[in-house]
Design brief:
Number of strands: 0
Largest sheet: none
Structural class: mainly alpha
Number of domains: 2
Radius of gyration: 19 Å
Number of helices: 8
């Protein structure tokens, strides 16, 4: 199945020889079934290979995928096979989808089910606005809300507080 997305023998060899290799053909098939475009599938497959190499360097295997540790790694990544350290949201999302694939295969345990963090009101309002004023589909709303929530996590504070604080500046 990997041949659908990669034609270079060297790249196919690299992907299949890594710790994630035995699971990549099935992951590629799952991505295709779910309707992912070829460009996105390639990025997600590269991310799956990347996380496999990362966990191996940590002395673990693909069944021990730690997304939080991988996220920290990606921030400063300079892995030669990871496109010289270039990274974007596809790296993290691809790793998440790959982990989910491993959970579905029964190789990884599902993350502990706890109370989901409450959605920030600003994100909830944004989702309502997208539906009402832009007629966005559910898939688009989920994608944009995920990005908005990620942005808010990066800001680590309530943007409304920042705006109010600026109003008091000279």
């Amino acid at each position: 199945m990997l041949e659908t997305y990669f034609s270079a023998a060297k790249m196919l060899g690299h992907l299949r020889s890594g710790p994630s290799g035995p699971y990549l053909d099935g992951f590629a098939a799952a991505l295709e079934r779910q309707g992912y475009g070829p460009e996105t599938a390639v990025r997600y497959l590269r991310a799956a290979a990347h996380i496999g190499h990362f966990v191996a360097e940590q002395g673990a295997g693909p069944t021990d995928v730690d997304l939080a540790a991988f996220g920290e790694h990606v921030r400063t990544c300079r892995c030669p096979r990871a496109k010289g350290g270039r990274r974007n949201h596809h790296t993290i999302y691809g790793a998440r989808f790959f982990r989910r694939h491993l959970v579905e295969l029964g190789l990884c345990q599902s993350a502990a089910v706890g109370a989901a963090p409450a959605e920030p009101q600003l994100v909830a309002d944004f989702k309502t606005w997208l539906r009402k004023h832009r007629g966005a589909s559910d898939a688009t709303v989920r994608l944009y809300a995920r990005d908005a929530a990620g942005l808010m996590m990066e800001l680590r504070s309530d943007p409304a507080d920042r705006c109010r604080a600026r109003q008091h500046l000279p």
